[in-house]
């Protein structure tokens, strides 16, 4: 760690006079020791440069990550924004697309749920797309299968009602509990349960997982906001600011 910090500081600032005037490979042992002592003394006198160097490195890494994410999104745009099977809410003709990869048993997905829906409803011009991405075990898979089956059997409005119920569901996810949930929502429980194990639903989940792998998504929630990737829970205020920045950038082009 100490070597890393020293290297960062040296990368960010002019080197001491000895290093500037001498090829380091030509130094003998005594000269290298003198150089190390000079660097150490400089860092001890100016410890703030370490933080400056680390900040610069983190900024550079963030910029590289954003560029990589934008490239991945552009390459997979059709699968992300127009796969033909994902539920689309909010304003289908909105000027901004927000995609969420989620798992119904993910605590941070549940934490984000009300805030994301508040953003979508309040804004009024966001096209919101849900990617069923069950990664937390068989109960997660069963919940996603039910949601997708509901969309197939009863349509988008019914899917949203099930999606909302699953996001707030407490207890074990079993066939019996899902049957009761469908009945409570006045849906055809038998038809939905029968459809859950269909090859079409298996294919959708596998497609979503393959897409996530291509996008280097390993956790939930993960959001795609136009050409940006937001990994993890994002507070409502921050998400709102990011939406505004995306719009401002589009208007400036």
Describe the structure.
The protein has 253 residues and is an alpha+beta fold. It has helices at residues 2-12, 17-21, 29-45, 48-75, 77-81, 107-123, 138-154, 156-167, 175-184, 189-195, 199-214, 236-252; strands spanning 87-90, 96-102, 126-132, 222-225, 228-231. Strands 1-3-2-4-5 form a five-stranded mixed β-sheet, sandwiched between helices. The radius of gyration is 25 Å and the shape is elongated. The two termini are 43 Å apart. 27% of the residues are buried.
Keywords:
64% helix, 5 strands, 10% strand, 12 helices, alpha+beta, 253 residues
Give the fraction of residues assigned to helices.
Answer: 55-70%
Question: What structural class should be given to the helix and strand makeup?
Answer: alpha+beta
- Beta-strand percent range: 5-15%
Give the neighbour order of strands across the main sheet.
Answer: 1-3-2-4-5
Q: How would you sum up the major sheet?
A: 5 strands, mixed
Gyration radius, in Å: 25 Å
Record the SSE blueprint:
Layout (H helix, E strand, L loop, with lengths): L1 H11 L4 H5 L7 H17 L2 H28 L1 H5 L5 E4 L5 E7 L4 H17 L2 E7 L5 H17 L1 H12 L7 H10 L4 H7 L3 H16 L7 E4 L2 E4 L4 H17 L1
Helix pairs in contact: 1-4, 7-8, 7-10, 9-10
Give a short summary of the structure.
With 253 residues, this protein is α+β, with helices and mostly antiparallel strands. It has 12 helices and 5 strands.
